[in-house]
Automatic annotation (TrEMBL):
<dbReference type="Pfam" id="PF13470">
    <property type="entry name" value="PIN_3"/>
</dbReference>
<dbReference type="InterPro" id="IPR002716">
    <property type="entry name" value="PIN_dom"/>
</dbReference>
<feature type="domain" description="PIN">
    <location>
        <begin position="5"/>
        <end position="116"/>
    </location>
</feature>
<dbReference type="InterPro" id="IPR029060">
    <property type="entry name" value="PIN-like_dom_sf"/>
</dbReference>
<dbReference type="InterPro" id="IPR002850">
    <property type="entry name" value="PIN_toxin-like"/>
</dbReference>
<protein>
    <submittedName>
        <fullName>Putative toxin-antitoxin system toxin component, PIN family</fullName>
    </submittedName>
</protein>
């Protein structure tokens, strides 16, 4: 069975990477075990790189590269077409790259903790889930 194509928002990818023993470490294990295929674009990768460099995380440049190396090799990088596909109106313009990626990448899921994105569930061809719902879906699919 082909693994689902999934857009993870920056905060979820970041939490799965930075907090190795945290609640979202299951996401990291799942992508590294091929249970889903994360989708990234130039914009979403740039945002992740920018956030990893925040002083509050106290990550050296080498640590940032190591964390990216634990994510990006498992991802499919997509180019957003020009003109981009129309996306549903969203309150936060920083959410638009994730919507574009979900549409351009024919994502099976967009997974986020962002309330503005979660409120858009039903407006895309794929469901928008929080991490817990997505992990439960993965677990249920594995048992089938």
């Amino acid at each position: 069975m082909t693994p689902p194509r999934v857009v993870l928002d920056t905060n979820l990818a970041l939490s799965a990477l930075v907090f190795a023993n945290g609640r979202l470490s299951a996401l990291r294990r799942a992508w590294q075990n091929g249970r889903f295929l994360p989708l990234v674009s130039r914009a979403t990768t740039a945002e992740l790189m920018r956030v990893l460099a925040y002083p509050k995380f106290r990550l050296t440049a080498d640590e940032q590269r190591d964390l990216l190396a634990d994510y990006l090799p498992w991802c499919e990088t997509l180019r957003i077409p020009e003109p981009p596909p129309p996306v549903p109106p969203c309150r936060d313009p920083f959410d638009e790259p994730f919507l574009l990626l979900a549409l351009a990448g024919w994502a099976d899921f967009l997974v986020t903790g962002d309330r503005d994105l979660l409120a858009l569930d039903g407006t895309l061809p794929c469901p928008i889930h929080n991490a817990d719902t997505f992990l439960a879906t993965l677990a249920a699919n594995q048992q089938e």
